[in-house]
Amino acid sequence: MAASLPAVTAALEAGLAEGIAPAISAAVWRRGLALHATAHGAAVLTAPATLFDVASLTKVLCTTTLAAQAVAEGALDLDAPVARLVPGFAAGRPPGGAAFGDAAITPRHLLAHASGLPWWLPLHEAARRDPEAAVLWRPPAERPPFASLGGPFARSRAAALAALLAAPAEAPPGARAVYSDPGFVLLGLAVEAALGGRLPDLFEARVARPLGLASTCFVDGLAPAAALARTAGRAFAPTGWSAPRSEWLQGTVNDDACWALAGAAGHAGLFSTAVEVAALGQAWLDALDGQGSVVPASAAAAFARRDPTPGSTRALGWDTPSPQGSTLGDRLGRGPRGALGHLGYTGCSLWLDLDAGVAVALLTNHVHPAGPDKGRITSFRRRVHDAVAADLGIG
To answer: Global pTM?
Structure first.
């Protein structure tokens, strides 16, 4: 039987009864020991093995982890202009205006969401205008099988990236902290250039395989046959309706911009289980305690340090608890070292209590079927984390 913490289990079952999400799964690790791994609701069909679209957790699990590796290896300079690695990048100027002085957007700016880039761009609209890529946006009954879509995905990705690289900045880099999906798409391109490969392949070779994460992967539209083979026989938690694709989503990425980018980008695209998300969180905890593995200890401390951008709660890639309260709840992360975490739009989260050595992965498909309700999912996340603290005697 899977390990189960009683207060956590009760909180998860209460959330299910309240209709927080049709499927809920959670895992808790402490100092390398797996203390909790349960699945509830629709997820119990395959227990904790159901794959969840972890949305923006991709930013820390994949892109930030690979960036830390690249920094430790000397392949990525956090303070060099990102245009050196992504030559087609022309951002750094306001619409119709001159450049913001001599300021250049760097990987550090992108990791800290301080680049001045907008929070969102309709990258999928550029892809939909491409005649060959347009097939990706047909209703499922009119769309060719996924295995045959490699060519359209390549055209779609090229069109979406062209729109990204031409996007204007809204503010000078370092002047403001605004959460930016386009910024992390750009960071993903810089990491690919620094490490010499595509994110799905880099993540598999450098993170998933060394940690034994057999389930965590992208559903990669540029390698559709391999993606189908990797996920064959697996159950996916559904994530709601996509109007641009005219379909209920299950097994393909929820984020339409990521779909346009062939299902794998710096900001979104990973599918995983709670157990494996927590295991990767544990790898970060180990690195921050000086025990590097896939997360290099030499870079981890710099990535965990809060960025000095005015008004920011961000570290590099990670978020930290807000003084006004956060989804971490009232008891975890209160020690002198604090906490690191991140949320995912679909209803997922990962939080690390650095003093207690605790990693909490909470995966849901809260956005299915009716879309997000920020107040309800925030309250639920807080209750689950307070339950973890109660079970572990923290706070």
So the answer is: 0.96
